[in-house]
Amino acid sequence: MLTIENLQVSVEGKPILKGLSLRVEAGRVHAIMGPNGSGKSTLAHVLAGREGYEVTGGSVRFGDEDLLALEPEERAHAGLFLAMQYPVEIPGVTNMYFLRQAINAIRKARGLEEIPAAEFMRKVREQARLLGIGEELLKRDLNAGFSGGEKKRNEILQMALLEPRLCILDETDSGLDIDALRTVADGVNRLRSPERAFLVITHYQRLLDYIVPDVVHIMADGRIQRTGGPELARELEERGYEGLLGTKLAA
Amino acid sequence: MATALDTVKDFTEAEYKYGFVTPVEEERFPPGLDEDVVRRLSAKKGEPAWLTEWRVAALRRFFTMEMPTWQKVRFEPIDFQAISYYAAPRQKERPKSLDEIDPEIRRTYDKLGIPIREQEILAGVAVDYVFDSVSVATTFKRKLEELGVIFCSISEAVREHPELVRKYLGSVVPPGDNIFAALNSAVFSDGSFVYVPKGVRCPMELSTYFRINAAGTGQFERTLIIADEGSYVSYLEGCTAPIRDENQLHAAVVELVALDDAEIKYSTVQNWYPGDKEGRGGIYNFVTKRGLCRGKRSKISWTQVETGSAITWKYPSCILQGDDSVGEFYSVAVTNHRQQADTGTKMIHIGKRTRSRIVSKGISAGRSDNTYRGLVRILKSAEGARNHTQCDSMLIGDRCGAHTVPYIEVHNRTARCEHEATTSKISEDQLFYCRQRGISEEDAVALIVNGFCREVMNELPMEFAVEARKLLGISLEGSVG
After folding, report:
1. DSSP string for residues in A67-116
2. How far apart are CA A198 and CA A46, in angstroms?
3. First-to-last CA distance in chain A?
4. Chain A residues lying within 8 Å of B438, measured CB to CB
5. Least packed by Cβ within 10 Å: which of A216, B47, B303, B476?
6. Cα gap A128→A31, rounded to integer Å
């Protein structure tokens, strides 16, 4: 589904990703772990098409498409979703209204009619209930005054409603207490399906107790350094980045 | 990849959608302004002598007045002698039914998206169409007549209800108030008149669509709305104008009078031609709008969404004379290209426990300048008066300007005034977030701007809010880089 080959990315002339390669198949959950500054979030942002990153080499294919040639919204239309580490506030735009705009934008791009109001309400309520999101939070301005946990749960709500093929979770566990972490993980697990792939970016092994990955990658210095199964995450938990990668890469 | 700056550029380059000219045969005066012109105009309209003399007196005042210089707008001096003061579609008689309206005029309204028949049948809105200077159709008149609501052109009101016109015309905005009010008083061509009798709640929104069509004509609308004791009326005003190379002057006067326990809600959506990217052409919108809360517990509420005109220069105001009366001003002003807006309100507190609320949202893009100028004056008599003002500015790009100029004069110790102001920008983070969710860049800008304006949009009647929301969207069209 996603094929990254020798991806090189700079920010303001400074190389961050230095030849990263990765293949993600449909139906699989890949975890990317790495110390601070390893380039994890850069990878997430480059895949989603955020400005300010200069791709200096390599390629990314998403299905049949050259992902890097697409605008951010076109990537969303193609089925790529990024659950953000810091969801932004949009004052004056209610959570519900935003959701509907996003769903309809994607439907329109795929040649579908706008979602009927009743169907929309039913789906939102159903998913919101599963994520423990109250009616009140749906009516509030998008992310305005949301707690850390509310913001992250709301990201998963959007993910559930937009039904992407590839879900990228950028440090979704940061700032979450254990209950919120469990709710978010349950939300993600419900969305696991043979057609859908996940790229779970995290600093800590903790999240992976709840979202059990098929493949674990350890990233450092702009490259994937090691790849393995869920046991690699546990090994990391025991030995730390330094023990696993050596002092130079773990810095 | 498109950047926010591209969006700004594209937004800036979006073309004016309503630029077309309707080829109707028209009758007009040659350019020029003197007493003779005013008398001929008055005669043409078959006005009584008192009104003719009232106009002439206003013209004399006008000739003694100077252009003010305190505002933050720049424009070439206006040659008042180069303007034609009367233009009307040539028609033998006023149409008896909507079917008799010139098909060209009908088409014009259709292009604007307000087909008369649809409006009549579907929207349940009574519309007084003002095409250049003459009101061409008034719908729903009969239904209103049953309730005793008078809704007609001001020319008709002069003929049919002279006592009301004579009593209230110029009572809120006297002819000598300012140079444009004086000019309007001398040469006003037509406009709307509303009278809501005691205790009547007007069951539908009353609406006027202004459209400037003829080249080189100024438009001098005169609107007078009177809400008698305990009555309520909501009035909508919408405006568009075709593209013209020369600047066109629009100097309207709107007067509102609310008696005891009466409420008037006046909403405007204005998208007149703003001029091209270089600032050529466009409407000069110099309007005097003022409401008088004459009665106790009366209320006047102004809501405006201003996206058009080369220069917008207006301050819809409330004089809170009656005890416990309430004045409100909700405004969205969008400027782009080289548009200039100097707009705001005046709240004059005279009565006891009078309250006013001001919410102003200014959005500047391109190389435009957007100024909020507001006066809150609390007189000695205004025991316990209160005001709350909120001014928020949003900047799109880095070549535009936003300015806030509040004047607060308090002459009573028991009064309370609050003023809040913020300035913000659309952030890259917000745009990226929206786009990541599949929303295009231009729709994202529209979404964020609409959110920024929500408090004001919420004040608009439903049908109008939808239109205003679309209008902000249209202003942002063509932004995919």
Report:
1. GGGS-HHHHHHTTEEEE-SSPPPEEEEEHHHHHHHHHHHHHHHTTPPPPP
2. 16
3. 32
4. 73, 76-77, 102, 105-106, 109, 162
5. B47
6. 26
pLDDT band at B352 (very low <50, low <70, confident <90, very high): very high
DSSP states along chain A: -EEEEEEEEEETTEEEEEEEEEEE-TT-EEEEE--TTSSHHHHHHHHHT-TT-EEEEEEEEETTEEGGGS-HHHHHHTTEEEE-SSPPPEEEEEHHHHHHHHHHHHHHHTTPPPPPHHHHHHHHHHHHHHTT--HHHHHSEETTT--HHHHHHHHHHHHHHH--SEEEEESTTTT--HHHHHHHHHHHHHH--TT-EEEEEESSSTHHHHS--SEEEEEETTEEEEEE-HHHHHHHHHHHHHHHH-HHHH-
ipTM of the complex: 0.96
With beta carbons less than 8 A apart as the criterion, state whether A29 and A39 touch: no
Q: How far apart are CA B129 and CA B211, in angstroms?
A: 8
Q: Is the pLDDT of residue B157 over 70?
A: yes
Judge: A93–B439 Cβ closer than 8 Å, yes or no: no
List the single residue in B1, B443, B451 with the smallest CB-CB distance to A51: B1
pLDDT at position B125 over 50: no
Cα–Cα distance, A43 to A55 (Å, whole number): 11
Q: With bands split at pLDDT 50, 70 and 90, how would you rate the model's confidence at B244?
A: low
Say what the pTM is: 0.81
Q: Please state, in angstroms and as integers, the Cα–Cα distance from residue B293 to each residue in A68, B389, B438, following that order.
A: 61, 19, 48
CA distance B452 to chain A (A): 6
Rg (CA), chain A: 18
Measured distance CA(B269)–CA(B332) in Å, rounded: 9
In this prediction, residue B6 has a pLDDT band, given cuts at 50, 70 and 90, of very low
Rounded to a whole number of angstroms, the distance between the first and last alpha carbons of chain B is: 8
Q: B447, A101: Cβ pair inside 8 Å?
A: yes
When pLDDT is cut at 50, 70 and 90, the band that residue B68 belongs to is confident
